[in-house]
Specification:
Helix content: 55-70%
Bound molecules: adenosine-5'-diphosphate, magnesium ion
Radius of gyration: 29 Å
Largest sheet: 5 strands, parallel
Structural class: alpha/beta
Number of helices: 23
Mean pLDDT: 83
Distance between the termini: 74 Å
Oligomer: single chain
Amino acid sequence: MAEEAMKNNDSSVQDEWGQICSQLKMEFGETAFDSWLKPLSVGTYNNGVMNICVPTAFMKNWVLTHYSDRIHKIWEHKNPSVKKINFVVQTNHSSDSSLLKKISSTPTPQNIYMPNFNAASSFNDFASKDSFMQLSAPLNPAYTFDSFVVGKTNEFACAAAKKVAESRNVSFNPLFLYSGVGLGKTHLMHAIAWHIKQQDPSRNVIYLSAEQFLFKFVKALRYKDTAAFKEQFRAVDVLMVDDVQFMSNKESTQEEFFYTFNSLIEEGRQIIISADKSPTDLEGIESRLKSRLSGGLVADIHPTDFDLRMGILNYKAQQMGITLPEKVAEFLAQKITTNIRELEGSLRRIVAHTQLLSKNEITLDMTQDILKDMLRSIDRKTTIDEIQKKVAEYFNISVKELQSSRRARTVARPRQIAMYLAKQLTSRSLPEIGRKFDRDHTTVMHAVRKVEGLIGEDASLAESVNILRRALEN
Ligand code: ADP
Ligand code: MG
């Protein structure tokens, strides 16, 4: 029996495979054939089961989903005794000298992006000089856990990031971080990478933006090297892809990413993803990818609250070696609420002015003067009337109810949120805001504090505030 199988394998099966390959090449084109099918080879054939050797798990996944049905059909047609096709990952076969086989039989480098090729070829040049060397985008040395200020709005995301950075075993996969712009996603991802590299330099951590992933993939397509592109991810222990929303409506990139993602997860590698929305809210992303993205831990960073903004201002001022008077910090923390990048930017602007004009202290007047344009545009954007209208609409109540003295939770909470947003998005004073709600300034102050507190505790409230803020800022 075994002997017959061998004999079969050596002669007719090889012939059949040769013919099938010609047909596949015709059907799928030379590029796809060279990338995915040429590296395959027939293995043993037993009891109607044909084993086909694939050099890597990546390729196996791809071939299974794209070509296996077709291969089976053609083969069955040629030889009805072939009942099943089995793809087996076999890294060390020596049949021909296809480049992929060379890669897969090269020992996997631990923390080097460039495998040790011997043969010179155009592929080698492409792979070694470009993609392997630069697979990971550079990490910003300033983005570490030490420099990440933690507050109520980002503590969950930060704790999740630390957990991933500290544990060798994958605890949740993928970790999906999302938030609006400038709230610390990239900072946290770099911090994870630095931490892992510090703990164990041999671990291969790759960080890249979705745009870079896309760019490299398109480049690989142009060089007809999609298989090589895929191979790059084989030695990855931790893969981070930032801003995946950039993949929306780019189907082939998503598909590529989907397979890369699945193979790595199957092999127990850690994946960390960021986006500007939760996986379910991402638009233009295939639903199977969305569901994979939500399969691990989803952690969002909420818009900042006053305390975090104060914390960040004080920390950054200290890092810059300047004294930031409390009043100025409070003023900035009250006005610049959009995101941390803008907060940092405004602080830098003030410091630059102070130094240029050789002033030895920062005053409130000066700050207001320097940030005039910025503040004016913030003020121009939103009015309290607009806020009341949007909030009432969102919570399905009337503006009259919002301004009324009713204390029912269904009205009181939206009212507090409206007051909070009025404080955050306009430059109106507390008494001015109070008048619009027929209340005094202490009620407004209480509402602002209350909502700030709730944002850290109640995710759905935080989400509502977030949605309203974005709607009002546009
Ligand atoms: P995102 O990727 O969410 O758009 P970034 O990570 O680029 O945001 O953050 C924008 C800027 O704000 C960066 O300079 C970053 O260092 C800073 N930043 C964000 N969150 C924090 C934080 N919690 N503590 C200190 N700096 C922060
Ligand atoms: Mg970012």
